[in-house]
Amino acid sequence: MSRTRRPDGSPDRRQNIHRDPTDPKHLAKLGAINQRVVGKKTRHFDPQAFLSTIGEGRKLVLFQRKQGIFAQGDSADALFYIQSGQVKLTVVSTSGKEATIGILREGDFFGEGSLAGQALRISSATAMMDSTILRIGKKAMMQALHREHELSDMFVAYLLARNIRYEADLVDQLFNSSEKRLARVLLMLAHFGKEGQPETVIPKISQEMLAEMIGTTRSRVSFFMNRFRELGFIHYNGGLQVHSSLLNVVLHD
Predict the structure, then answer these.
(1) How far apart are CA 202 and CA 241, in angstroms?
(2) Domains in the chain with CATH codes
(3) Which one-letter DSSP state was computed for residue 120?
């Protein structure tokens, strides 16, 4: 094969751009490029693996029953993910009155206000039983959310679902009777209406706490709980067992 020549007649020593497609060196180079491209395309990020392992900015912490995780007024520099156990969120008014605003379980986040510029905690978090919780620093979580679309999609979906629940809680407080509110809380604690099998047995929870959650007195809670038991909606057997028939109280006008 003759070489191409420059305008002055001298041979052009630059490499011919028309390569032999069967050249082994050329094929090896293309294979290496393809492997890098395929590797980038097939890289998979698993949010659950991220939330179940320790790493930069992520620390696994074990909390005993009744142990505080953070207190109202503490610096908000991280969020938390419950791997196992249960967590109670409470607030205390300036007059010293305490109210339970939520009971969270495995798979729930809390303390996420730190990502939205919240400087101080507006509630306290306490382990209701021995719990395993992943603490994720604010910076580490923000970087992961920007970098990993799977994690950001999961986190946004979780926050939207929680927002819908908070709106339903507000409507419940404004328009429903304390009996309906109690029935709804019991069903939520048993996870009726969520994916997977509902947990009909609720771990030990005091009537005082239920009263705080629905905004009524302990005596009213006791009255309704006795009525629910007489009607066969609930019963006690090593824990509080909730039956799907309790939905009748919520749906009844």
Answers:
(1) 6
(2) 47-172 (2.60.120.10), 176-251 (1.10.10.10)
(3) B
8-state DSSP, 25: H
- How many C-beta neighbours within 10 Å does residue 91 have? 16
* pLDDT tens digits in sequence order for the chain, 253 residues long: 555 556 666 555 555 445 555 565 555 565 555 555 444 545 688 999 999 999 989 999 999 999 999 999 999 999 999 999 999 999 998 888 888 888 999 999 999 999 988 999 999 999 999 999 999 999 999 999 999 999 999 999 999 998 898 888 888 888 889 999 999 999 888 877 555 555 566 767 889 889 988 889 999 999 999 999 999 999 887 778 888 889 888 877 5
Residue 154, Cβ neighbours under 10 Å: how many?
16
Return the closest-CA partner of residue 100 out of 66, 125, 64: 125
Q: What is the pTM of this model?
A: 0.71
For 124, list phi and psi in degrees, rounded to 5.
Answer: -110, 150
Distance CA(150)–CA(147), nearest Å, equals 9
